[in-house]
Design brief:
The protein has 362 residues and is α+β, with helices and mostly antiparallel strands. The chain is built from 12 helices and 6 strands.
């Protein structure tokens, strides 16, 4: 059907969407991935952080003030303890920041767009909000929320069931042992739940990317219009090709009538013609480089047109004179020497030809 979006988005369409901040991104993957990395980092860095924070607390509570306690000295002690606590937490916080950046950039690459920052009054429309809730995306989000709750409940149940024997003995444990057991259970629950939710977040990203590509699909007419804008109208390009081919044919047809072909010897070839009766200066009737230069030389030799290797002159003529135009005044002297050589060559060839009378040749 006409107007149906059946075509995959072109690179230009994807780039424009990216420029507007419209990219495929799963916020669930970012939040759950950050949670998973936080749990792993806390498991690895937690003992050191705990020891440092405990030392700060013990030192703060047991320190004897060297001077009389006042609001100023109390504030100085508070700033010192806070700075030490933040220094202890710095590696953990740095891991969280880097994880958030990596999870965002990893999904769609770096994107800087002010379009998403602009305030939109449509988000305040209650009717539009209700439509979003009961739309397909809203129902999918609701299903994901229930799936998360079920996953977390299942992980908590399975983890607690595997530790029932240890949990039953908690009343007989010391406070330190019971605290260690509860901390271990909390870590296990958080790690397993975050790992399973991360898999769900990866699936959500695949879904979001599929939906995003579906929203960017284009009609056949849009693809054709974009091709015209980027590569030009095919009809205009075809007309330009015909004009170039016509010019090429005219140049090749003019080579046999030229007086001389000046070459580089392999990169450039310029065919010159001069008629002192009808022309004020020699005219470039054909020129080309590389393969076209070889073709011009081939046609010239086939028709007996002299071919002269003069690299500086060939380069100057090729760069300065369009086809069908006379040579500039600064090249008169060099071209005159070439034409003199051609005329001398013709005279020598004519002198070697036997004279033919009407009755025969001597």
């Amino acid at each position: 059907m006409a107007g149906e979006r059946t075509e995959a988005p072109t690179p230009r369409r994807l780039q424009e969407a990216r420029r507007e901040g419209n990219v495929a991104r799963s916020q669930d993957l970012v939040s759950v991935g950050g949670l998973l990395i936080a749990v792993i980092a806390l498991r690895m860095l937690g003992p050191g952080i705990w020891d440092e924070l405990r030392a700060v607390l013990i030192e703060g509570l047991g320190r004897q003030p060297a001077q009389e306690l006042s609001p100023a000295t109390a504030m100085a002690m508070f700033r010192e303890f806070v700075s030490r606590a933040l220094l202890a937490l710095a590696p953990f916080l740095a891991v969280l920041v880097l994880a958030g950046i990596a999870l965002n950039i990893g999904q769609s690459g770096p994107t800087l767009s002010a379009a998403k920052i602009k305030p939109r009054l449509s988000v305040l429309n209650p009717i539009a909000g209700a439509k979003r809730i009961f739309s397909k995306d809203g129902l999918v989000s609701l299903a994901k929320a229930f799936a998360k709750m079920a996953i977390i409940a299942g992980v908590v149940y399975l983890t607690m069931r595997s530790q029932v024997a240890a949990i039953v003995t908690m009343p007989a444990m010391s406070v330190a042992e019971a605290s260690a057991l509860l901390a271990s259970l909390a870590f296990d629950i958080a790690l397993r739940a975050a790992a399973v939710l991360f898999i769900l977040g990866a699936a959500d990203y695949a879904w979001q990317r599929r939906q995003w590509l579906g929203r960017l699909r284009m009609t056949k007419e849009e693809v054709r219009r974009e091709l015209k804008e980027t590569d030009g109208d095919p009809q205009i390009k075809a007309a330009m090709r015909r004009r170039r081919q016509s010019l090429l044919n005219r140049m090749i047809a003019a080579v046999p009538k030229a007086d001389v072909v000046v070459t580089n010897p392999t990169h450039y070839a310029v065919a010159l013609k001069y008629d002192p009766v009808t022309m004020q200066a020699p005219i470039v009737v054909a020129k080309g480089e590389r393969l076209l230069a070889l073709r011009i030389k081939e046609v010239a030799r086939k028709h007996g047109v002299p071919v002269l290797e003069e690299p500086p002159l060939a380069r100057a003529l090729y760069a300065a004179v369009p086809v069908g135009h006379p040579i500039p005044a600064n090249l008169f002297h060099a071209v005159a020497e070439v034409l003199a050589w051609v005329y001398a060559l013709r005279q020598k060839a004519a002198a070697k030809r036997p004279f033919t009378s009407p009755q025969g040749a001597f």
